[in-house]
């Protein structure tokens, strides 16, 4: 497959100014008439017009109303005899396509008898021939024609300017988008849909209509999405002065969607998972995800749509920035500072468990990649989450107000343009000329160009005679494919020094006239740097990288006592949590290294267990934070800390740790559970969600302890709670406690749950994934997965369902998947190949389950490699899956 290189970017040979599309919608054969006005781009050498197309049937091509010659080059339509000169000309292309056969869910497809589109990144070419690249921005008008009874609602981008009846029971709607846009932001929807509507007046005094469209029957699950949208509109105005630029803003939900949602101009299309919620069917996590995703797509209206990417290598320009914005939005919606900290810890946990492994694996790429085979493979945690961290570091370096100024300048300079990551960084720096960012910009931009996770190594020396503490920080970054040597990064390091009482010391560097109140941020720019703090009366405990101030691995040889001190006292909640994680990882690694983990093993030391007890009992800490501290590092995270990975051993040790915490803290868990029962009305706010999360965690531990002791009281109570719960969070947590502890009552609760929610697809997804992600006991999960795939509700064609069964097992259940008999890998290879023929994007994501195969211990390593090779050897593999498996084998 062809490799596309960033260095090869050239501007298009033609611009497309206007696009007038007419659709005669029919599932089997949709007719598309595409009338465009084009002109040559005088800035580049003359070239034939090469239009992208995919799986289209071409019927007619006219230039200025006349037939013309054309040829095909692969799937591209090439036109050579076009009018010379700068004059605009009209090109008319008539094609047909078959939406009902479109299982890739890219371009125009049918889901539940309705039509939807997905054009990012390169789906528009599956609708019509076009210059399908983000730097070609055009004005669109769209006419949709369809059977009125089957498709009463006809939507596209912008404003509805005309609608009416047609012969034969058909009707039409004409939409005009007032904003120019790249083709990837085009959308249409047609079907039997109903909407929740809200009129709002913006701060700027303009009136807007917000709509959330769903299938009839789902309207009672749209209130939270609408509220989230209203909050998003208000937040972007308040924080960045960015107002909604459309009279009408629509969200439409579909249950067949490759990703989470799509920011099409004025017509966002969402996976139902990120729209539908009521207390009976959605958990607190669902509510919180909906808020983030609705915010994310809305914020794209400026960061992505008004200013878009010059080419797909710049994807993080919009995605990293928009993730940063949605993270800030969710934090700003938290009224308590502790809830903000919880959100930050959750975001960092995602980064470290998903992005750090990506940065160390075969798919490692810079935030601004240099090459790709299939761009869909680069909608990654590196582009999104690491990209957001890069933006966050810019904000740290210029300050919150400085960052807002930078955003203002970015829009002043580039509104309506397709630009690069360099343009963004330059605007933030130029708006803050006296900042560290401006001073260090070329070096800072290595975050865009160098892949891999930097490691910061710290050592501290206390000099009692000099009353000084010297902290030496050095940085390194392992080589990644094509980047053997890395230059030093700009790394903001949030820092504090704790005294023996746990209080922050004033920080005064040698040479500074006076102390500066902590916390402070130091900027590491060299391979090694030394900070000497004066006026220190006793050896402090350093709290380094506070708030996770940079996406790096921090190595510091803390003693257990120092970590316990940080866990008990640090004013920085992130580092407080982090100290607990470090202690747990340390115990896990020691136990994994020991020869075996017999039943009843107790890998955690007394001090750790005691510290966890103190956290649980601490009245000053809120429930959500306690739940995070008490959650042991995941198996994938532990695996990343090891050179050679035995997934079974990691699982055994982590399960032993869970059982130890369950048993040793049994009395506390019972108190915690009883103390966190809320009988008032359900609200998904962070405080009450945290209380429910901690109560759920208590229940799981009580069930685990009961399974160990043979006692039946708590499992019985859990089953009662499962049956009587007033909301999905409590019900699901109770069910999960039974499943995760392996209690026999799970076998009664699971069918009951299915029967209760058999018509709720998103709940049935939870039902599947709870079983396929359950702790493996003697290899029981793979047979269960195979059985579940025979269930009447299972389908590989629906991405949510496929992910809930196959991906949850292969990517979320390491011990179930990595089997000594290699059956997990055989299953994986069969599913990847099967899915690849249906939906390459879903297949390619699943293919990444074995990214870290080379770290595995034998016999897993060889068997995994063999399975990847088997997939790679398959002829007719999609570009998507081919790229993933060939990089894994390289
Ligand atoms: N910008 C959106 C990307 C997206 C996508 C990409 C490839 C294939 C299908 C897709 N659906 C949505 C999502 C976002 O970041 O907002
Ligand atoms: Zn996005």
From TrEMBL:
Keyword set, alphabetical order: Aminopeptidase, Hydrolase, Metal-binding, Metalloprotease, Protease, Zinc
Essential cofactor(s): Zn(2+)
Domain Aminopeptidase N-like N-terminal positions: 20-185
Known EC number: 3.4.11.2
SUPFAM superfamilies linked: Leukotriene A4 hydrolase N-terminal domain, Metalloproteases ('zincins'), catalytic domain
One GO BP annotation of this record: proteolysis
Domain Peptidase M1 alanyl aminopeptidase C-terminal: 560-890
The keyword S-adenosyl-L-methionine appears for this protein: no
Catalytic activity: Release of an N-terminal amino acid, Xaa-|-Yaa- from a peptide, amide or arylamide. Xaa is preferably Ala, but may be most amino acids including Pro (slow action). When a terminal hydrophobic residue is followed by a prolyl residue, the two may be released as an intact Xaa-Pro dipeptide
UniProt record similarity statement: Belongs to the peptidase M1 family.
Annotated function: Aminopeptidase N is involved in the degradation of intracellular peptides generated by protein breakdown during normal growth as well as in response to nutrient starvation.
Designated name of the protein: Aminopeptidase N
Organism for this UniProt entry: Polaromonas eurypsychrophila
């Amino acid at each position: 497959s062809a490799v596309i290189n960033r260095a090869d970017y050239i501007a298009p040979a033609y611009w497309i100014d206007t696009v007038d599309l007419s659709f005669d919608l029919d599932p089997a054969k949709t007719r598309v008439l595409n009338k465009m006005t084009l002109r040559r781009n005088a800035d580049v050498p003359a070239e034939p017009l090469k239009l992208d197309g995919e799986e289209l049937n071409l019927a007619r091509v006219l230039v200025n109303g006349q037939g013309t010659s054309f040829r095909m080059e692969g799937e591209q339509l090439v036109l050579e005899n076009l009018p010379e000169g700068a004059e605009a000309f009209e090109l008319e292309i008539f094609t047909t396509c078959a939406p009902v056969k479109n299982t890739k869910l890219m371009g125009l497809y049918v889901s539940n008898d309705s039509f939807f589109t997905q054009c990012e990144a390169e789906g528009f070419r599956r609708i019509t021939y076009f210059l399908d690249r983000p730097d070609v921005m055009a004005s669109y008008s769209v006419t949709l024609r369809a059977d009125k009874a089957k498709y009463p609602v006809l939507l596209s981008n912008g404003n509805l300017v005309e609608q009416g009846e047609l012969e034969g029971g058909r009707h039409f709607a004409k939409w005009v988008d007032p904003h120019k846009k790249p083709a990837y932001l085009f959308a249409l929807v047609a079907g039997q849909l109903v909407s929740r509507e809200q009129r709002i007046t913006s701060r700027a005094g303009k009136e807007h209509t917000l709509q959330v469209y769903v299938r009839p029957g789902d309207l009672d699950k749209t209130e939270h999405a609408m509220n989230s949208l209203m909050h998003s509109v208000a937040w972007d105005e308040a924080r960045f002065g960015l107002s909604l630029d459309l009279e009408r803003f629509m969200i439409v939900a579909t249950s067949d969607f490759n990703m989470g949602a799509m920011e099409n101009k004025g017509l966002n299309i969402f996976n139902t998972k990120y729209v539908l919620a009521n207390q009976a069917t959605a958990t607190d996590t669902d509510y919180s995800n909906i808020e983030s995703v609705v915010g994310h797509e809305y914020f794209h209206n400026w960061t992505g749509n008004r200013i878009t990417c010059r080419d797909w290598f710049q994807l993080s320009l919009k995605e990293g920035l928009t993730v940063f914005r949605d993270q800030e939005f969710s934090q700003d919606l938290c009224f308590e500072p502790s809830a903000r900290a919880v959100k930050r810890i959750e975001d960092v946990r995602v980064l470290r468990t998903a992005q750090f492994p990506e940065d160390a694996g075969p798919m490692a790429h810079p935030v601004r990649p240099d090459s790709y085979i299939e761009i869909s493979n680069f909608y990654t945690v590196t582009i999104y989450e690491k990209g957001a961290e890069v933006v966050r570091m810019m904000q740290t370096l210029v300050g919150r107000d400085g960052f807002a100024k930078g955003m203002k300048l970015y829009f002043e300079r580039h509104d309506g343009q397709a630009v690069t990551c360099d343009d963004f960084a330059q605007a933030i720096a130029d708006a803050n000329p006296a900042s560290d960012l401006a001073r260090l910009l070329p070096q800072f931009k290595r975050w865009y160009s160098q892949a891999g996770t930097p490691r910061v190594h710290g050592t501290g020396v206390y000099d009692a005679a000099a009353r000084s503490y010297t902290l030496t920080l050095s940085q390194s970054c392992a080589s990644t494919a094509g980047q053997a040597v890395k230059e030093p990064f700009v790394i903001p390091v949030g820092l504090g020094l704790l005294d023996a009482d746990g209080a922050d010391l004033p920080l005064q560097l040698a040479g500074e006239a006076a102390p500066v109140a902590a916390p402070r941020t130091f900027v590491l720019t060299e391979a090694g740097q030394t900070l000497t703090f004066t006026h220190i009366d006793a050896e402090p405990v350093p709290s380094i990288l506070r708030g996770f101030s940079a996406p790096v691995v921090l190595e510091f040889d803390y003693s257990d006592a120092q970590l316990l001190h940080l866990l008990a006292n640090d004013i920085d909640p992130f580092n407080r949590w982090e100290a607990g994680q470090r202690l747990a990882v340390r115990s896990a690694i020691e136990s994994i290294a020991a020869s075996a983990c017999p039943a009843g093993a107790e890998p955690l030391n007394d001090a750790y267990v005691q510290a966890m007890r103190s956290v649980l009992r601490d009245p000053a800490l809120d429930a959500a934070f306690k739940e995070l501290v008490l959650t042991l590092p995941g198996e994938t995270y532990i695996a990343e800390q090891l050179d050679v990975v035995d997934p079974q051993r990691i699982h055994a040790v982590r399960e032993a740790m869970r059982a130890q915490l369950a048993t040793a803290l049994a009395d506390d868990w019972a108190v915690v559970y009883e103390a966190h029962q809320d009988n008032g009305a359900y609200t998904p706010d962070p405080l009450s969600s945290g209380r429910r999360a901690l109560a759920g965690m208590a229940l799981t531990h009580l069930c685990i302890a009961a399974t160990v002791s043979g006692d039946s009281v708590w499992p019985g109570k859990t089953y009662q709670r499962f049956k009587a719960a007033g909301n999905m969070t409590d019900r699901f947590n109770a069910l999960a406690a039974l499943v995760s502890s392996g209690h026999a009552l799970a076998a009664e609760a699971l069918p009951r749950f299915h029967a209760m929610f058999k018509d709720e697809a998103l709940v049935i997804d939870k039902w599947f994934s709870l079983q396929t992600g359950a702790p493996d006991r003697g290899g029981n999960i793979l047979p269960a997965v195979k059985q579940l795939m025979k269930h009447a509700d299972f389908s590989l064609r629906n991405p949510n369902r496929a992910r809930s069964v196959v991906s949850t097992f292969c990517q979320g259940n390491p011990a179930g998947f990595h089997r000594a008999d290699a059956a997990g890998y055989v299953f994986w290879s069969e599913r990847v190949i099967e899915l690849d023929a249906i939906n390459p994007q879903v297949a390619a994501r699943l293919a990444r389950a074995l990214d870290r195969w080379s770290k595995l211990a034998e016999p897993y390593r060889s068997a995994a490699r063999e399975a990847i090779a088997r997939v790679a050897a398959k002829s007719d593999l999609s570009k998507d899956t081919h790229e993933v498996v060939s990089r894994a084998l390289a």
